[in-house]
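Handout, section 4.2: multi-component inputs.
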Amino acid sequence: MRQSSPSTDRLDRLYALALCLYPAPFRRGYAPAMRQAFRDALQDRTLSRRTLVPLVLRDLVTSLAKEHLAMLRDTFARPALVFNAVVLSALATGLALALYAIPQQVLRQGANDPQIQLADDLAARLEQGIAPAEAVPAGSVDIARSLSSFVIAYDDQGRPLASQAQLNGTVPAPPKGVFDYVRQHGEERLSWQPAFGNGRSVRIAAVIQRVGGPHPGFVLAGRNMREVEAREEQVEQMAGLTWIGMLAVILVGTAAFGWYARPRAA
Amino acid sequence: MATETAPAAPLTPAVFAILLSLAEGDKHGYHIMKDARAPQGGGIQMGPGTLYGSLERMMRDGLVEESGLSDDERRRYYRLTKLGQSVLAAELERLDAAVSSAHALGLFPHGGRS
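Output:
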């Protein structure tokens, strides 16, 4: 056996400090025995320091990770605890989705409100035989910038006849398929994106109605959705924050309950 | 409390080395580490963390138990249980079969042991 030396004492104290890094239950159970085993190794003449120190360092790293993982598994990986956390997380996710989807739908549907009446009125005037140029109110709305409502009258092939709206100097027209749908169903309410691109995207809350009578065609009433979409984004952020908050509460609550109700050694 | 269920073979090198060391009789921590380090004990370089972590799980599985012997209150002695003995025997049989198979295939350099 080696005699105790300053370097042996220093290594012994360092190892005692390192033992503080183990989980408390493991430390309470085994720290004195581990320290004694380390002391025995320090005294062993057949084991050089050059072998012992790297061995113990490797052992510390691997066994610390293993014991902390085992403690987490014992504390939190109980089926009832995990099941409760998963159910609560699913409920929180459903609630957060509802918090986003319901106001989003209310905002989006509300964005059609003035256009429904505007399209009705214009269709009625055209069906009475009033010329499109007279039926469509005067004025020009740049739909990329303005939040004002606007109307456009189209002929039966979807060509513009009269318009309040301008986009880059032209009268925009929805895809032909939209007119085909309205021809069959009488009306369509949709989010229409007449311009794409970075910083140039324009989205319109549009209501399109079929015009009957001697000169059939279509009317479109629309409004830029910029403000509505800004509010939808705020709702999305609030719902997202609420979701993260609920998950954090569930995580902390589960961890606290798991710790409080952890299995304890007899 | 021991669960009394044998771990599925093959055993980890550390568990096998501990069982093999304790097959000789009651031993304390460093004695087991020293046995494991020897070539005939498996040549396993095991530190105190791995040793006592393994011992804790082995006690939970009912493979080993504290013997109650002590020459120093900081030294804890361990011994094999019946289950530990049978798990060690099963592992040795498994290894023996593998070694016999390797012999039959001529895989040992210089013919291996006689």
